[in-house]
Amino acid sequence: MDHMTPFEVGEAHGRRGTRRSFVSGFIGLVAVPAALVGALALGLRAGEARWPLPAWLPVSVSTLLVRDEAGSPPDAPVLYYRDPDKALYALAPAKTPDGRDYRPVRVGEDVDFEPKPAEPAGGGQTGMAQAGGKKVLYYRNPMGLPDTSPVAKKDSMGMDYIPVYEGEAEDGNTVRISPGKIQRTGVRSEAVERRVVSRPVRVPGTVTLDERRVTVVATRSDAFVDHVENVTTGDRVRKDQPLVQVYSPEINAAAAQLIANPGFDGSRRRLQNLNVPAEAIAEMERTRRVPMAITWSSPRDGVVLERGAVEGMKASAGETLFRIGDISVMWVLADVPEHELGSVRIGQAATVRVRSLPGRAFTGKIGLIYPQVAKETRTTRVRIELPNPDGVLLPDMYADVEIGTGSAKPVVAVPDDAVIDTGARQVVLVDKGEGRFEPRAVQVGARGNGYTEIREGVQAGEQVVTSANFLIDAESNLKAALQGMAAAPAAGEEKAP
């Protein structure tokens, strides 16, 4: 026996090729509102006349409009056949596994894809009726109102109360949803997987020099500048490249003592304390002559950041003649908001883009989180170290910094839409198959890339609801409330109307 879904039934009717079959199948899926039918029927009776119906009105609709209060006429066409207990359908007469006939659904009958309760034996006066081998505990209001009944009945709008079977009440955390309702509400599920969850923190920054790679060229005694090489601010210099020649009376006096007493180590040590280059000291010992001026060279490869030396000037001890900066490695100082500090760690990767070089990105790592929060901006400065081999990064450039937070190891994660956050707790709905859903409290962790880390509550491989989960959660809360009220109706205290 072939079972069909409601939409397969509609398509099968449409394939029959006749106008009557198509309209019948459409009416079977979309019921004409009861208020419209009642108004038309009342108009026909009040006029005490049989008004002719329009010729264009399909036969199935005409039959529906002239039916009496008992339902469809006995000779109305059969749309399909329905299992008396489940949402299973067939186009031809069929039987259930236990030998019962499928119920015919005719044109004009209200169509509901929810499972229908079987009529209780003896007129339906007991709340413990048997339905397809399952015991009906009670019936609940179809509109979600806090109203139950021990017997099958209809509400004020003529809708059947929904049965709650014995098996459905065994697990108080599990909610059962019929296949028809799942299809109509658009419930979708997704498997729980292990994945890397990261959320980038985007903050502004500024390119600066590495403080450890800046050197000042100066004398340790008063001196006069004899000559300055053709080097200006901004020029690139190499290590040991000559920069300036200076004359210092104190250095010359120490050099004379070294030449007069070659074996006296104190004279060499004095020159070294005056920061005289080792090459200059070796030249004095070799030539046995006191030079008129000493040449100072660049201590490293880099860029001339400052030139203070001018030919003929007198330089006091410690005065800056040149300031050299190595720009092969640069710093980026970024201001991270206080509420983001918990997700930033030393060693995390960071991507830097400068506004003067669109389309180019530089990758570095966080080297330091400064131990202070600015009172005015509520931010903390973070230092990122960037390689700058081609020297395109310059001091004081503005930068856009993106810090990749989160662990690089895969963690159990679900889509953000799967988490229902009430503020006090977080819940996901686990899809257990066959229309069964279990609300489960979880402990969440990091969020990023559209996913939320689940530290406790679900495991990889389980299915969680990602769409229409609020509707199922409301159904779960309603079920919990109704189960608390079910004791009295189950005892038969409420009588059927």
From TrEMBL:
<dbReference type="GO" id="GO:0030288">
    <property type="term" value="C:outer membrane-bounded periplasmic space"/>
</dbReference>
<feature type="domain" description="CzcB-like C-terminal circularly permuted SH3-like">
    <location>
        <begin position="412"/>
        <end position="472"/>
    </location>
</feature>
<feature type="transmembrane region" description="Helical">
    <location>
        <begin position="21"/>
        <end position="44"/>
    </location>
</feature>
<dbReference type="Pfam" id="PF25975">
    <property type="entry name" value="CzcB_C"/>
</dbReference>
<dbReference type="InterPro" id="IPR006143">
    <property type="entry name" value="RND_pump_MFP"/>
</dbReference>
<dbReference type="GO" id="GO:0046914">
    <property type="term" value="F:transition metal ion binding"/>
</dbReference>
<keyword id="KW-0813">Transport</keyword>
<dbReference type="InterPro" id="IPR058649">
    <property type="entry name" value="CzcB_C"/>
</dbReference>
<dbReference type="GO" id="GO:0016020">
    <property type="term" value="C:membrane"/>
</dbReference>
<protein>
    <submittedName>
        <fullName>Efflux transporter periplasmic adaptor subunit</fullName>
    </submittedName>
</protein>
<dbReference type="InterPro" id="IPR051909">
    <property type="entry name" value="MFP_Cation_Efflux"/>
</dbReference>
<dbReference type="Pfam" id="PF25919">
    <property type="entry name" value="BSH_CusB"/>
</dbReference>
<keyword id="KW-1133">Transmembrane helix</keyword>
<dbReference type="GO" id="GO:0022857">
    <property type="term" value="F:transmembrane transporter activity"/>
</dbReference>
<dbReference type="Pfam" id="PF25954">
    <property type="entry name" value="Beta-barrel_RND_2"/>
</dbReference>
<dbReference type="GO" id="GO:0060003">
    <property type="term" value="P:copper ion export"/>
</dbReference>
<keyword id="KW-0472">Membrane</keyword>
<dbReference type="InterPro" id="IPR058792">
    <property type="entry name" value="Beta-barrel_RND_2"/>
</dbReference>
<feature type="domain" description="CusB-like barrel-sandwich hybrid">
    <location>
        <begin position="214"/>
        <end position="324"/>
    </location>
</feature>
<dbReference type="GO" id="GO:0015679">
    <property type="term" value="P:plasma membrane copper ion transport"/>
</dbReference>
<feature type="domain" description="CusB-like beta-barrel">
    <location>
        <begin position="330"/>
        <end position="405"/>
    </location>
</feature>
<dbReference type="InterPro" id="IPR058790">
    <property type="entry name" value="BSH_CusB"/>
</dbReference>
<keyword id="KW-0732">Signal</keyword>
<keyword id="KW-0812">Transmembrane</keyword>
<comment type="similarity">
    <text>Belongs to the membrane fusion protein (MFP) (TC 8.A.1) family.</text>
</comment>
<keyword id="KW-0406">Ion transport</keyword>
